[in-house]
UniProtKB/TrEMBL annotation:
Domain of life: Eukaryota
Lineage start: Eukaryota, Metazoa, Ecdysozoa, Arthropoda, Chelicerata
Disulfide bonds: C248-C316, C277-C334, C318-C323
Official protein name in the record: Scavenger receptor class B member 1
Cell compartments where the protein resides: Cell membrane; Membrane, Caveola
InterPro entries noted in UniProt: CD36/SCARB1/SNMP1, CD36_fam
Stored Pfam families: CD36
First-listed, main subcellular location of the protein, grouped into a coarse class: membrane
MF annotations from Gene Ontology: scavenger receptor activity
Membrane topology per record: Multi-pass membrane protein
Record field: transmembrane: 12-34
Organism, as annotated: Argiope bruennichi (Wasp spider)
Family statement: Belongs to the CD36 family.
Amino acid sequence: MICTLTRKISVLVVSGLLIAVIGLVMYCTFPIFMENEIKKRLVLKEGSQSYSYWKDVPVPIYIHFYFFNITNPEEIWALTNKPVLEELGPYTFRESREKVNITWNENGTVSYRQIRRWYYQYDKTNGTLDDVVTTLNVPMVAAAMRGKQMNEDMVFFALEEIFSQLNCSWFVRKPVRELLFEGYDDKLMKIAKTFMNLPYDKFGWFYKRNGTDDGEFSAFTGAIDLQKVDEVDTWNGERNVTSFDPPCNIIKGSAGDMWPPSKSHRDHVTLFVTDICRSLSFTYLATTDVNGITAHRYWTDDKQLDNGKYNKENKCFCPEGICLPAGGLNVSSCKFDAPAVVSYPHFLFADSVYSQGVIGMKPNPQEHRMYLDIVPEMGVPVGVAARMQINIVFEAVPNITQFENITKRIYFPILWFSETAEAGEDIVSQLKLVLTTIPLPFYLLLERSATNAGF
């Protein structure tokens, strides 16, 4: 009886010691195991779980366009009133993204081009693509602003004569389909194309962009350093853009498909945006739920488009040291020297000088700011809202008759867009499965050890 009891106690002691040793080993090795498992799944390489998500983005992406229709063009021409604008839209398109020419490089990066295509969604549109919009005659205004910049009498004379011969007006009336992807014939552009290297033969905000790419990206795969996964190394072979002064010209941040995994939220995440030739920083807001999966929400704050007054780091976004009022980004050097200014929709967070020039702006932080919802353990975005407004500088050009009587500069709102994506329940289920299966081998091993010990 005593021997039997002693034997049982010995077994329990040995088993307890064995469990303690196993627990200690697991405690020390589990973080390494987890890191290796996560790395194996998240590193960009053919066959990894992240590769298919990265190559052909499965989350449905929609882009919603809103135009500002000018309701009082005669009053503006007569200089008797500000522009009165009404918002039309949204005009919605489904966006697909496909990475092509994928090349794996020896320095731990992958090079590729991303083809984007847009498909009209009539059921998600308020109106039709045949809606006619009264909007600014951008080719005419751009030519006048370019002439002002050149400041040569011969140029002023030529532009005034051309404007007169073509009977140009400050405004045009065009259907949405032409203003977006189809483009419209413009006599001024045809004349300019005879002596200038213009890239297009028609004018449209997204003319000839459907089915094209934004250049060649080279991004880190995470194989060498997982904390750099999907971080842009070069764009079109360069690590800097020519649009801004240093250090604002540095290309940094994610290409937008993934971010490094993290256990807790980061202070901010960074995204490189080709359309404005710069990176944007998103600050942490809160934990949120996207169709059943926990994500960290990051959004752009009111200092993102500051002119350097509050955020000194933004001073180098001012070309030749000339800064716009806070809330607007001069992208002329990024967009063929067009007098374009990018802001948040309805001049959200912008200096009052922008909205005071027109009537009809109704900024709303919930509808007009940008955000990213990222699953921290995987660095995968499950919710996105990218929102920007395109404005054109409209001001006096003293040496051109058609522009000499304009009394004050106006940052003329043309359109704004909201590019949104949200992972549905099917994609969320797949992501949750990945999250729950990462530690499964550990728990199986622990369970097997406990069973073998007699528990």
